[in-house]
Amino acid sequence: xSAQKIILLNQKGGVxxxxxxxxxxxxxxxxxxxxxxxxxxxxCNLTGAVSGNxxxxxxxxVITGKAEAEAxxxxxxxxxxxxxxxxxxxxxxxxxxxxxxxxxxxxxERLVVLDSQFDFIFVDCPPSLGVLTMNALAWAQDxxxxxxxxxxxxxGLNMLMRTVADVRKTINPDIRILGIVFTMFSKRNRLxxxxxxDTGSYLPELVFKTVIPRTVRLAEAPSFGLPINVYDAxxxxxxxxxxxxxxxxxxVFED
Length: 255
Ligand SMILES: Nc1ncnc2c1ncn2[C@@H]1O[C@H](COP(=O)(O)OP(=O)(O)O)[C@@H](O)[C@H]1O
Ligand SMILES: [Mg+2]
Hints:
Layout: E1 4-8, H1 17-30, E2 35-39, H2 45-49, H3 59-63, H4 69-72, E3 74-75, E4 81-84, H5 93-97, H6 106-111, E5 120-124, H7 131-139, E6 142-148, H8 152-169, E7 176-183, H9 190-202, H10 216-220, H11 228-231, H12 236-253
Parallel strand pairs: 1-5, 1-6, 2-4, 2-5, 6-7
Antiparallel strand pairs: 3-4
Helix pairs in contact: 1-12
């Protein structure tokens, strides 16, 4: 097998990257796929959300060559779901790596050994377009963009599209945008529905049909170290991430 390599990308913070990484990954694992999540943000929210810890090796150790990727993979309490935890040390990498030859390609070089061991590998990025995100963009096949259903998100999206065009011209000609997923949708907010509709008609092939609702359960689950399908499988958020997982499988394997 050769893993599908997907990056969660949006230079804005608080848009649902980590929540989508955990719960999409966990839904795919529940469907029987072998899934690896890589926490590539110094905040390490992903690590805690699947009951992981950085006591062994971390993604920082992997990218700096202090540990082999295989040694950094840890099991989670959830079947088929594995983690390379994050580290606060990632915050210093911009400074540490700048100017080093090939600095955008370290992650790709180090993770390649894992390709044959998983069906899906997700890298959860920090909210910036610095060296960490560039490393993830050089590694990935597919970009998944979580976005809030707000008009100001559109400006960010234009910038993101320009970045992706640059990445294609430079470090990764084959990368594609798998899709845009709207998060934190609120039925009571008319504007939310307008944004989803407008974007859907402007970029019809890119926007996933599944929209992730705003629900307290999705915000609570990480504090228990549980993905939503384990914390509350009957919740609307859990069902939405399962539906998204099915759409992702269809796009990746059938289209
Ligand atoms: N669908 C949702 N419903 C309610 N809260 C959400 C939802 N998605 C994310 N959140 C909460 O919003 C905050 C930001 O989400 P997060 O996934 O951490 O964003 P990012 O990784 O892009 O910074 C977190 O506190 C998270 O629990
Ligand atoms: Mg995050």
